[in-house]
Amino acid sequence: MENNPAVAAIEYALELDPDECHTFLHLWCYGEFDALRKEWEDIPDEVFIGADPFFNKDNVQLQ
After folding, report:
1. Which domain of life, per UniProt (predicted)?
2. Would you say 51 and 5 are in contact if contact means Cβ atoms under 8 Å apart?
3. Best CA proximity match to 31, nearest among 2, 55, 7
4. Labelling 46: which of 12, 15, 16, 19 has CA 20 to 30 A away?
5. Beta carbons within 10 angstroms of residue 32's beta carbon
6. pLDDT digit string (tens) for 5-23?
7. Closest CA to 28 of 58, 42, 8
8. Which residues contact 6 (CB under 8 A, 6 or more apart)?
9. What is the pLDDT of residue 41?
């Protein structure tokens, strides 16, 4: 099955507490991918592949 970043984002967000879930999905929906990576370091790549046009696993910088 082909990767669906929206499904991956929702599946990940449902594991968070309700406030974090809302914040995560809001940021993801508006393309704030750097903010997501900064706040949640364990997000699976599938959340970004196909959604973040600049996603390249080798270029992700963790701060």
Report:
1. Bacteria
2. yes
3. 55
4. 19
5. 15
6. 999 999 999 999 999 999 9
7. 8
8. 51
9. 92
Q: Write the burial class of residue 8 (CB in 10 Å: 0-12 exposed, 13-18 middle, 19+ buried).
A: buried
Sign of CA dihedral 31, 47, 36, 18: positive
Q: Find all residues with CB under 8 Å of 21, minimum gap 6, and list them.
A: 13, 14
As a whole number of angstroms, the distance between CA 63 and CA 60 comes to 10
The whole model's pTM is what?
0.84
d(CA 3, CA 41): 20
Q: Which residues contact 41 (CB under 8 A, 6 or more apart)?
A: 62
Burial of 50 (0-12, 13-18, 19+ CB in 10 A): middle
Tokens 């507490």 map to which residue? 17
